[in-house]
Amino acid sequence: MSPEIQFRPYSREHAPILASYALDEVYCAHEGWAYPSDPDRMLAWAERLADAPSDDLVRVMAFVGDDPVGYVDFQGDDAQEKELGYAIAPSSLWGRGLGTAAARAALKHGFTSLRLERIWAEAVEANSASVRVLEKSGMRFLRRGDDARFLGVPSHYRQYEITREQWMAQQSSPDALGA
Q: Is the pTM of the predicted complex or chain greater than 0.90?
């Protein structure tokens, strides 16, 4: 059974949680963040995200019960479509199905609460776990994207998308996602 993910709007109270991800060496390597990072600088950055959010970014914190497990972003200036981003952290939580649960919950949030018509995402092909999350969430491969490196390995992005209509069809067919 998939963990149940709930979202809470990102606020200043979540800044220490987000900043703490910079203390996780494995997480930082996967995100391409410098490690170790200055904790005060990371906290200031996380507070700025809450105090002065970008007009083209919607960030929500992901929780299982009262435990924070990461965040989800919707980014882009088009009101009908956004890019989905997600992170499960700390890295000790990886491998438990939280990424897929967060991505599925994010699609529901994007299509029902944000009223989006299309959601797209991309993952570096060498990050096979992230690619699997997008595929298991029901997103469809769209095309090969730009070249990239992941943990020092040359690779490229894989771009995915799903429309509201496709997502709604999946919801009426429980077997469609191999739940």
A: yes
